[in-house]
Amino acid sequence: MAAGVKSCLLTVFTCCYRIVGLSVCLAVGFLLSILSCALYGNWWPLLVVFTYALAPLPNAIFGRYVSMDPLADVSSSVADFGRFLTSMLVVSGFGLPVVLAHAGIITFMAMAMSITGGVLVYGTIIVYSTLFREQSEF
Q1: Which of 111, 112, 121, 138 could form a disulfide with 29 if both were Cys (CB 3.0 to 4.6 A apart)?
Q2: In terms of pTM, does the model score above 0.90?
Q3: Looking at the predicted structure, is the pLDDT value of residue 14 above 80?
Q4: What backbone phi and psi angles, to 5 degrees, belong to 42?
């Protein structure tokens, strides 16, 4: 019985370390995005933060239309449209700082900080969704 409790506690602590690590990574990503605005006195890179918030929503909404049968060779156009919207938001999250820097609206360092923050935020979302995905039983 003691071995079972120890194994359960180890699993809980491992899960807590994952959550704490992901939350630190997410906080650093948002901090870099906010600092890219505040340090250089230009708040245009803050538009990228809205794409962080909106990017997972189409997959969450339209992902319900995916077939749960792994052997089915059926593709749902609604789910594909959700993936398209998500990829459009992610690409615009990376492209918007580049366009703003090219136009001379923000500095190069603000662009680099905004893109680095975007990589951290999007990476955290992807890692969270893969680590804590529900396992389907066959």
Answers
A1: 121
A2: no
A3: no
A4: -135, 125
